[in-house]
Amino acid sequence: MSAGLGDGERSVRLTEAEIAAKLGEMALALTPDEARVEADRCYYCYDAPCVEACPTGIDIPGFIRKIGTGNVRGAAVTILESNIFGGSCARVCPTEVLCEEVCVREKQQGRPVTIGSLQRFATDFLMERGEHPFARAPLTGKRVAVVGAGPSGLACAHRLATLGHQVTVFEARPKPGGLNEYGIAAYKVVDDFARREVEFILSIGGIAIEYGSPLGPDLTLDSLRADYDAVFLGLGLSDPNALGIAGEDLPHVRDALGFIETLRQLPTEAQAAAIGHVLVIGGGNTAIDAATQVRMLGAETVTILYRRGPEQMGATKVEQDWAQTHGVTIRHWLAPVAIEQGAVALARTRLADGRLIVTEEVLRLPADLVLKAVGQSFADGPLSTSRELPAFARGRIAIDGDYRTSLPGVFAGGDCVGRGPDLTVQAVADGRDAAHAIDRFLSD
Amino acid sequence: MADLSVNFAGIRSPNPFWLASAPPTDKEYNVVRALRAGWGGVVWKTLGEDPPIVNVSSRYGAISYGGSRVMGFNNIELITDRPLAVNLAEIKSVKRAFPDRAIVVSLMVPCEEAAWKAILPLVEETGADGIELNFGCPHGMSERGMGSAVGQVPDYVEMVTRWCKQHTRMPVIVKLTPNVTDILQPARAAHRGGADAVSLINTIMSIVSVDLDLMAPTPVVGSMGTHGGYCGPAVKPIALRMVGEIARQGDMAGLPISGIGGISTWRDAAEFIAMGSGTVQICTAAMHHGFRIIDDLTEGLSNWMDGKGYARLRDFQGKAVPNFVHWEDLDINFKTLAQIDQDLCIQCGLCHIACEDTAHQAIAALRVDGGRRYEVIDEECVGCNLCSHVCPVDNCITMHPAETGLPFATWKEHPNNPLRIATDPLSTKALA
Questions:
Q1: What is the ipTM for the molecules in this complex?
Q2: Which residues make Cβ contacts (< 8 Å) with residue B287, sequence separation at least 6?
Q3: Which of residues 265 through 324 in chain A touch B, CB cutoff 8 A?
Q4: Among the four given CATH numbers 3.30.300.130, 3.30.70.260, 3.30.70.20, 3.40.50.720, the one describing domain B335-403
Q5: A292 and A265 within one domain
């Protein structure tokens, strides 16, 4: 629940706590009674569709049954065995297009078991007890370098540590967590959850993190390959896409992900920018996260502009509804053609035989702030300091079915390989499975 | 609108729904609320000799299953803990206020003729319509030689029934305990003693759960528990069988039966009536939801009867009894097969895993264009019904008789039966 916007509050500088209260939490935790009632709705399917829809393949009927019987710790362990980021995935996964979309209750009643909320219930239970449920295998003496402390890197590091290897994680930023820490709406991961989850993951032991250590002149892939038995690249996507239109470099134009980062790290600064008329360009979850938050923080009007229709939006229906019920307007079939001082020029679009046509009909909308949320690309700059580079494919790092890059001993996963959807849960699956591939490589 | 009125062993009531002798019928306040709500009658909670017994605190235990509360219910309460005179005065007042309802009084006094002879006129004086002999209570009172301690000894049942018939003009209903190996023994004893009717079942001896922290049976009285009497929806199948067992005995034909045990809905009631009951008694469902359930009990039963063309209860009372036969009278050549309605199937896979792991490997788990599809393998299906029971979707898996081309035949003639009857090709229903 978020606090109201209040009259004339826009110009008031709020404290971080006040901002957190204003943003609230998107979904509240289940009470034990709610969890029991919901768990009883699960049919405990065999060969359950939800498991297949989960990139990490969590035994969903299995963990829900355990909640139902009161074995909540067991439920959490079942989740975390498959997905060590089970806590954040419970909060940020678009379950409505993954496990919950295919729930047989959805088919039967149009109302799926709320798997995400049950997963949160179980993982919160275990994390609140401060227990780490896994033990490391006998140490192998092998050392693995992981680049990137986001979901794929840490999932890989955790599984490697569990298998008995020693891991050093190199992270460019001062904090771990990747997009969970920097790129997701605050109302999805409240109370510093991303940080607490990373602490929980690291409590397995055997993982050291070097912060402020980007790949570059001082830390090359060559040197990591020389110093470690294997390397995992979980670099993510760090290059915000450009609109490629005039006026993009004007001072009131910002990258949406950068704005969310500011909001997460320096909330008072973000709040100061949330005034007047804000236009958010893009149709994915980042557009929703940015638009909804900037509206909650006090912007007068917030409009998402998307060049296609609601069905084509990357943001799920649930996300779109969330934005709209929080005062964000979504306008479709509009493509920006130029950014001007205090306005954006937009051309109407339409589809012709499946192709997007940008028409000559232009309109202008006032804009005190323009947020670009048109995706990110893989930045190969950090790797370029290396003598030997891995092969690339479709603008990202190329891997085979076993997460191997073209360089011996170098593996990669997460958004920087783009094997599946650009989702936290996919990155976690990549990191985990790559760890097993690395383990096999190290055992040979 | 079907006529629901009954004349049960001379006791009339506007509908067959009576509240069983139990906490809901312990005092005038509750009983008046029930009768105002529309219940056809009550069996007043068991009266005994003064001084009244004393109950413990912490009295009920229950089983919840899959989110449903009180699937099974267990109590360690005894008979009324109020003075006899108070109960008698209230019974008299209720009967005067509700002359059209059945007011039956449950009784339990020591197994001595004098004790029964003393209490019967007092009850008769209230204007009550009949008495029910509590030979069933399986806890507490049985340790004092009453309740099921009597009900488990057919000779005692017969003897006490005879005393009551001798010392009162009121109809005598004998309430039977299920805590016996053969329900027919006490039923026949009651019949021999001259009972006007039997009612069954009383509660089943039970420990409903163990409190794993206190390490004691529940309900826990301080630090210890005792066995109680089990009732509620879970016991319905046990009760229905015992009712049917008595109803199909030729030597007890015509003995009115008041069916008791887990009846929660009009459908349950219809089943007990079809199995031979003249009235039904309800307790747990009322304790779970209150007396207001009577609305649906009467209306639901009436609507169902209208749909079936039954004008009166006796039009279908006992109609299932002739079809309740011994196993050896079943058609061994009958075959039924499962059918899955693919349009209704939600792909939960429960039918497959149940059949695959625990039955006959007769449901194939297929993938068609990536989608799950479950199909019955007719050649492997033995018609056990397991899949149709585990399927969570109504009418998705249904059972359909298959043509075998074989005549009706029973185990009695089957070649595998070493004791087979030589030539008789047709069975006669055992107890027609």
A1: 0.86
A2: B22, B23, B24, B70, B73
A3: none
A4: 3.30.70.20
A5: yes
